[in-house]
Every structure is written in C-alpha cells, then in structure tokens.
Amino acid sequence: MLKFDRKYFEGLSEKTKFQKDILEKVYRLTDMLKTICDDEFLTYKLVLKGGTAINFIYFNMPRLSVDIDFNFVSLEQRKDMLKSRKNIDKILTKTSTMSGYEIEKIQPYALLQYNLKYTNTAGNIDRIKVEINFLERIPAFDIVEKKISIFDIPEFKVRTYRLEELFATKLRALLIRAAPRDMFDVYMLLKSGLKLDERALKKCFIFYFCLAQDFRKLDLESIGRIDSLEIKKFLLPLMEKGKKIDMDEISKKVDEFASRMLALNENEHKFIENFYEQKNADLDLLFENVKYNPQLKEHPMIGWRLKNM
C-alpha cells in the first residue's frame, strides 16, 4: 500500500506539472513494476515493452504511461509455458491482493490481463492495468537490462527490449491502431538523438507487422486520421499541464520516418512475397546482414500466422 496521502501527490503535481490523479496512477504502476521486477521468478520470465518501457527507461518522461505491458520471453515448449503461466498468475494475484487491489482478471488464449482497481487519495475509483502476452515470447534481438528511477521509489532493474525492437513494435502499433500516444512516442525517438540502427529497426518492423496484418495492404493513412479531439482526450492528460505540442510537425516527422520504413529493398520485397504467397518466413532473407536471434525462427506466431492467413 502507498504510504502517501493527497498532499504528497499535490506537491508532486506542483513540482512536475502532471495531473494529480494520473501521477498517483503512475506511482502505483511503478511500485507494482518494481515488485514484479524484484521477484526472482517473474523477473526472468517477463520482459517490459511498450510506452512504459520507452518513457520510463529511454526518455525523461515527456508523457506518463498508465499501463504495464510485458511479453513472456522463454524457449519453453507449450506444456512448460502453461505451467509458468499458472505460476505467474498465482504470484501476481497474491501480490496484487496484498497491495490492496481489487482484481478483475481477463484471460483470453494468449494473454493474462489484470485490471487492478483501487480508491485513490481523492476518494475516486481508478485502475491500473497489467498485461502479459504469451505468444510473442522469442525476441528478435538480445534482451537488455536497464535501470528505472522514478519519484522516490528506490532504483530497480528491469529486463526490456533493445531500442530498435521497442520502436519496431511501437511503429506497428501506430500503423494499426492510430493512437496519439504512439505517434508522440515515435516522434520523441526521432527528436531524442538516441543512437539507433535504423536498418535493424526496419527489419524488425517488417517481421512484426507481418505477424499481425497484411503488409501488402499497409499505408500511412492511419497517421493522418489522428485528429485534435483524440489528442485532447488521450494524449494531453498524460503530459505536463499547459504543454503545447505541434501536431503538424509531429505528423510530418513521423510520416517521413514511416515512409523510410516502407521503402523496401529487393530482399525485403521478396521476403514479403514469399511470406504471403509461398507461406514461407525466410528470416535470413529478411534480416540479411543484420545480426538477429536465430531462435526467432521458432517464434510461435510464425506458424500460426502462416496457417491462418
């Protein structure tokens, strides 16, 4: 349970310029993330991804993130994976209950999702979400260990993806769901000056998009469909109060970047053609001279996708 009252978050809000209730949500989320990463079993099974990994690790929180998204990463066969899943559920259920959360659990085939309900310091009902994906369990590149230090929570280590892989899946998310926060995250990467292997990112993006949708039908229209109402509702509440953003610049820069990702060379074209027409995922052809995880060829989503197209 949190040891701080409303005055703590009011002071933190004044200092950081973020909204009080969102700050409390993020504090609780970070506290839960630390608990997960401190667990000897969970820390070697779960790899942090998405906006929380991007904004908590690589950026200095230009926006807040209010969900924890993990992939279960392991070479375990299905039988052992299901045992691990059961153990993960047991640990997270116990941890969440001991922390005072009311748990709503959603368990579709490939996911474990926990909506953790609580009464915040303003007396309102709120939730944080923890989600674990059990299908994307083999990474394209090596997993890395990073440190997170937020608020006054003691610094802790977390396992996450290489920057190129994080942003490959972030770009995939943007082009599928067209969420303002995804576009903002991609823009912040371009603006950050972080050292990035764009070629590796592109290969990784092609791979992950093919697992999700038909790459041949991909276009950039989704970026243009993000309107000011969506930005006001879904992005601005996660940013500093009064923060101004230039959506024309953001859209232009992200569109230019996405266009580079869609400018395919001969081998990339051939990979996509073989993937959909021959039902063959030739990863050596796709990645060419980019060093990737050879175990990626055993990714469980490849067989499922080729079978169900």
- Specify the helix fraction band: 40-55%
CATH superfamily label of the largest domain: JHP933, nucleotidyltransferase-like core domain
Counting structural domains, the number is: 2
Mean pLDDT: 90
Q: Report the structural category.
A: alpha+beta
Number of helices: 13
Give start-end ranges of low-pLDDT stretches. none
Spatially, the strands of the biggest sheet line up as 1-2-5-4-3
Shape-level CATH architecture of the largest domain:
Roll
Q: If you consult CATH, what is the topology of the largest domain?
A: Nuclear Transport Factor 2, Chain: A
Shape: globular
Order of helices and strands: HHEHEHEEEEEHHHHHHHHH
How much of the sequence is in beta strands?
Answer: 5-15%
User: Describe the biggest sheet?
Assistant: 5 strands, mixed
What gap, in angstroms, lies between the N and C termini? 46 Å
The top-level CATH class of the largest domain is Alpha Beta
Work out the number of β strands: 7
Radius of gyration: 20 Å
General description of the model:
- There is one protein chain.
- The protein is α+β, with helices and mostly antiparallel strands and 309 residues long.
- The chain folds into two domains: 1-161, Roll (Nuclear Transport Factor 2, Chain: A); 162-309, no CATH class.
- Helix content is 51%, strand content 14%.
- The protein has helices spanning 6-16, 20-38, 50-58, 78-98, 163-177, 180-192, 198-212, 221-224, 228-235, 247-261, 266-278, 283-287, 300-308; strands at 46-49, 67-72, 102-106, 111-119, 125-133, 144-148, 156-160.
- The strands form two sheets. Strands 1-2-5-4-3 form a five-stranded mixed beta sheet. A two-stranded antiparallel sheet has the order 6-7.
- A hairpin with a 4-residue loop joins strand 3 (102-106) and strand 4 (111-119).
- Helix 5 (163-177) crosses helix 7 and helix 6 packs across helix 10 (247-261).
- It is globular, with a radius of gyration of 20 Å.
- The mean pLDDT is 90.
